[in-house]
């Protein structure tokens, strides 16, 4: 299975999650930036509110393509110990990488939410969405964050993931919907005809569009 673009992937994912359409306790939590494009399509199709959850990969200066872990806006930390050991990173080194991402987390919080706190997730059904996962670092940090936020159910919805990563995700959540798990896996972008980078401006436009749709349509569930 391949996707034309992130919007196409979102439309296909929405069909697999139709049971949650209009659920007054459900919320879509998208990981910026690419996940917001997918999440917007879910929001429109399922009549559910769209929010962002902020998580940043931890990358070494010498290898920006390799994520040794991730940290979320709540401070939850995931470390890929094998990758950290391969890069000879100590605990202190990891903390320095975390500190280096705090500024970007603050920037995104101010930009995407205008400084507002994350909406309450207590006793809600949370649908975590991204445009795909490779190592899963950001998703694992996000799932860890959910423990302190007390949702009733956590659902992972992804267009694409490696089979080994998806098998590690499934025991951690209540439901895991992944459209394709190609083997061999090369990259998330390889499954998309159009995988252009998503800008802050696009994220803001989609969040605003989702908000307008929710305000306009009485069938949308409310936060």
Give a description of the structure.
By secondary structure, the chain is of the alpha/beta class. It has a domain at 6-54 and 117-216: 3-Layer(aba) Sandwich (Rossmann fold), CATH 3.40.50. 40% of the residues lie in helices and 21% in strands. It is built from seven helices and eight strands. It has helices at residues 6-16, 34-46, 81-86, 91-113, 137-149, 163-169, 200-216, and strands at 26-30, 50-52, 55-60, 63-72, 77-79, 125-129, 153-160, 175-180. Strands 2-1-6-7-8 form a five-stranded parallel beta sheet, sandwiched between helices. Strands 3-4-5 form a three-stranded antiparallel beta sheet. A hairpin with a 4-residue loop joins strand 4 and strand 5 (77-79). It starts with 5 loop residues before the first helix and ends in a 7-residue tail after the last helix. The model has no long low-confidence stretch (mean pLDDT 93).
The total count of strands amounts to 8
Query: Distance N terminus to C terminus?
Result: 34 Å
In one word, what is the shape?
globular
> What is the averaged pLDDT score?
93
What are the salient characteristics of this protein?
223 residues, alpha/beta, Rossmann fold, five-stranded parallel β-sheet, three-stranded antiparallel β-sheet, 7 helices, 21% strand
Describe the protein's topology.
Elements lengths: L5 H11 L9 E5 L3 H13 L3 E3 L2 E6 L2 E10 L4 E3 L1 H6 L4 H23 L11 E5 L7 H13 L3 E8 L2 H7 L5 E6 L19 H17 L7
Parallel strand pairs: 1-2, 1-6, 6-7, 7-8
Antiparallel strand pairs: 3-4, 4-5
Helix pairs in contact: 1-2, 2-7
